[in-house]
Amino acid sequence: MTTVVSSKGQIVLPAELRRRDRIEVGQEFDIERVDRGEYRLVMRQPSTREGTIDWLLACPAKGYFTSIDSDSTDDL
Question: Beta-strand (E) ranges in 1-76?
């Protein structure tokens, strides 16, 4: 497959490769220079914590935490 470097220095991965490897918008890659004119592109593995906040916010049990009555510490 062939791709072109844009005026902004961007390289587009062909749609067939993106579909085959399920590459989504925002996916990060590492690139290293192997030799003159030869580069290696490796998809980064998502952090094990990635998506945790979204998962917690999607919890169906809203209002799980409630405030409790307590003595004020203002007078201490």
Answer: 29-35, 38-43
What is the rounded distance in angstroms from the CA atom of residue 68 to the CA atom of residue 58?
A: 24
Structural domain count, the chain: 1
Quickly list H helices, the chain: 15-20, 52-57
* pLDDT higher than 70, residue 67: no
Q: Is 44 within the bounds of a domain?
A: yes
pTM for the model stands at 0.51
Torsion sign (Cα): 51, 56, 58, 59: positive
Count the neighbouring beta carbons within 10 Å of the beta carbon of residue 27: 13
